[in-house]
Amino acid sequence: MKKTVKVVFAFALAFGVALLWSNAFAQETFGAWELGPGGTCFENFTSKGWDVFEAGWLIGQKVSSPVGGNLGQISDLLIDRSDGHIAMAILSDVPGFGAGFVVAPMNALERISENTLQLNFGDRDIPIAPSPEDQYATELTKSRDIVGLSAIPSAIDPLFGNRVYEFYGQKAYWADRETPQESVSVYRVSHPSIGESLLGKTSPPALMGATVRSEDQKSTARVDDLIIDSKGGRVALLVIDKVPGRGDTEEAIPFGEVSIDGNAFVLNTTQDKLAAAPSFNEDTDLHNSTWAENVYKFFGQQPCWN
Questions:
Q1: How many angstroms separate the Cα of 276 from the Cα of each of 269, 281, 293?
Q2: 180 and 284 both lie in a single domain
Q3: How far out from the chain centre does Cα 275 lie?
Q4: pLDDT tens digits for 36-58?
């Protein structure tokens, strides 16, 4: 009888340890949205797991300061054309900036509630004194020459980008690349606003809502959304619809399958392969890493998060 009790106790103890370990692992891999320094498909990629969100959800989300003040909203993202990195987040309606924009690294944003993000300033010393004004908003206004933009650029000067990242206590992801870049060419996610269009401000090509064509020019589709790997800080997949022969079915394709020719987006695939690609169902597939891996394998690519 005593031997049986000892065996049961040992089994329960081992099970408890395993359960605690698995919970810790789950929190590290699939926990709350916490963006790290980011990585790429190259050697410095350190992402674990499959923790994603859709760009369509992110655009329009409110941004607060560390003391709860209003810092506008996310209006766009600048995507590095070379590897899908989110080079910068674009904030609009920021107090003191009028129709201008404020830029920030994606990993300076922390999700603090379902529909609110907080902009963190790293170790930057910002004295907080009793005042009706938000000192963090004031700090942005004082640093307009570093973090402010009057128009969305089609390329980022790394010197400008480095200053932005340093302002928020971050290191730019391109700093670890073996070959220094003269500029970082980008896509934007959203199309220009009416105000931007009326002012005639130039903008980089917008992905969301764009028409894409197959490399054999026999098929076209539309980009409906972007799936972003939050731990890697990069676009993992594009969600496309209006694929000929697929009805209302959506598909997802790796970011690496997309390039641009002039002002036209081109998929590195044929009409037949596009028609046979795995379908995408937001309810069942968005957080399914096995499905995502199969999409990459279908297109002959290695999943970056592995």
A1: 11, 15, 16
A2: no
A3: 27
A4: 333 334 333 333 457 889 999 99
